[in-house]
């Protein structure tokens, strides 16, 4: 049934609507590539982002891991619950510390990279 509905939708679209839809999809993919590229470039910036901060940013934004998943990756699957919870708390604190945490440092470098690339928030988010 879903294939029939999709075929019917395609037949009911004008060529202009199809072109607009294709362009919107392409624009979305381009923005996603720009976003991931900027995140990666910032994570590889050695001057202001420590290797550990870069790893946290990559795990969180490029791999989509939560704090618990990040802790499991660092400790391994065999860690006891108490140790795991302490590691989750430590990662969360490191990530969210206002001026010196991973996210704060990432934001400073991201702003500098965006300026170098002549990009604005609108270019990235739409």
Layout of strands and helices, then pairs:
Elements (H helix, E strand, L loop, with lengths): L1 H11 L2 H29 L7 H12 L4 H9 L5 H16 L5 H15 L4 H5 L1
Helix pairs in contact: 2-3, 2-6, 3-6, 4-5
Overview of this protein structure:
- The radius of gyration is 20 Å and the shape is flat.
- By secondary structure, it is mostly helical.
- It has helices at residues 2-12, 15-43, 51-62, 67-75, 81-96, 102-116, 121-125.
- Helix 2 runs antiparallel to helix 3 (51-62).
List the keywords:
126 residues, single chain, mainly alpha
User: Tell me about the biggest sheet?
Assistant: none
Total beta strands:
0
Mean pLDDT, nearest integer? 79
- What are the secondary-structure elements, in order, as H or E? HHHHHHH
Beta percentage is under 5%
The helix fraction, in percent, is over 70%
Q: Uncertain spans, ≥5 residues at pLDDT below 50?
A: none
H/I helix tally: 7
- Gyration radius, rounded: 20 Å
N-end to C-end Cα span: 34 Å
Structural class by secondary-structure content: mainly alpha
